[in-house]
Amino acid sequence: MIATTLSIAGNEARRIFTSPLAWTVLGVVAAISGYIFVMLLLSLQADPMALSDYMGVSDYISAGVFGFATLLFLLVMPLMTMRLFAEERKTGTITLLLSAPVSTTQIVLGKFLGLTVFMLGLVLILMLMPASLAFSTDLDYGRLAAGVLGMLLMLLAFGAAGLFVSTLTREPTIAAVTGFGLLLMLWLLDVLAYQDVPLAQVFRHLSLIGHYDNLRRGIFDTADIAYYLLFTGTFLWAAVQRLDIERS
Predict the structure, then answer these.
(1) Angle at CA 110, nearest 5°, toward 105 and 116?
(2) Does residue 54 carry a pLDDT above 60?
(3) How many CB atoms lie within 10 A of CB 71?
(4) Which of 88, 163, 170, 208 has its CA 20 to 30 A from that of 216?
(5) pTM for the structure as a whole
(6) What is the largest CA-CA distance in the chain?
C-alpha cells in the first residue's frame, strides 16, 4: 500500500513541477515575499525602535514575512489544488484512475503527498529569508521553527480543503473559485472571533488563522497542532468518501 501511494505521489509531484503554473506560483511567492523581507529590513534600519514590541530582529522579520504568507497562501493554493481531480474528470482520465487496482484512499493520499512536495518548496522559500539573518544576528531558532511548523500545517490544511473541492467538479476554474471561497470563509472566522457576537469563542477555536498566529508568535501548543491535523484529515476523508461514491 505504501509503495503504491508513494508511486502516485511521485507521479503527481512530477506533473505539478512540469507545469508552468507551479513555477510561476513559486516565482511570484518568492518575489513578493522577498520584497516584503527587504521592506522590513529597510523599515527596521530607518526606525530601530520598531523592535520595542518584539524580542529581536529575527522575530520582527519572521513575524512580518510569515504573517504576509497567509494572504499569499490563500490566493495561490486554490490554483494549485484545482487540477488535482477536476482536470482528471474533465479529460476523462478519472475513469482510468478509479478503475485501477488501487484503493481510493491510496489515490487521495498519493495526490496529496505529491502536492505536499510543492508545499515544502513554498515553506523553504519563506524560511530561508529570516534564516539568512543568522549571519548577522542571533536567531531564536525555537520561535523560527514554530513559525515554520505553523506555516506548513496551515498549507496542509489549505491543500486538503482544496483537494476535496476539486473532487466535486469537472471544471478546474470552478474548483479554484470554490476553494478560494471556502478558505476565505474560514479566514473570516478569525474576524468574528474577536467581535461581540454569539459563539465568538467557537469561532476562535475554528479559525485557521488564529491557530497559525499562535505558532507564528512562538507559542507551541499541542491543541493548535491537533487542530490542523484533524482539519486536514477530515477533508482528506471527505475526498475519499466523495470518490468512493463516484467509484461505486
Answers:
(1) 125
(2) no
(3) 11
(4) 163
(5) 0.90
(6) 64
